[in-house]
Amino acid sequence: VFLAVITGLLSTNMFYNLNATEITIETVTEVVYKPYLQREDMIPGERP
Q1: Which of 19, 27, 35, 45 falls between 20 and 30 A from 1, CA-CA?
Q2: Does 17 fall in a domain?
Q3: In terms of residue numbers, what domain contains 2?
């Protein structure tokens, strides 16, 4: 029983960690990648 509880806790924890990692990646993408894309749009010489 004890092992089953530990295994259950670990798998739940892993699930939450994966979820948190996904959210973190999304946040980083929002914060870092989008402004980077906007900056790329404003590169001189790209405009007609």
Answers
A1: 19
A2: yes
A3: 1-41
pTM over 0.70: no
Q: Which residue has the higher pLDDT, 40 or 30?
A: 30
- Give the pair of three-digit tokens for residue 37: 């894309």
The 10 Å Cβ neighbour count of residue 22 is 10
Which residue has 């996904």 as its token pair? Answer: 22
Q: Report residue 32 as tokens.
A: 């870092």
Question: Is 48 within a domain?
Answer: no
Tokens of 30: 């929002």
d(CA 41, CA 39): 5
Amino acid at position 42, single letter: M
Structural domains of the chain, count: 1
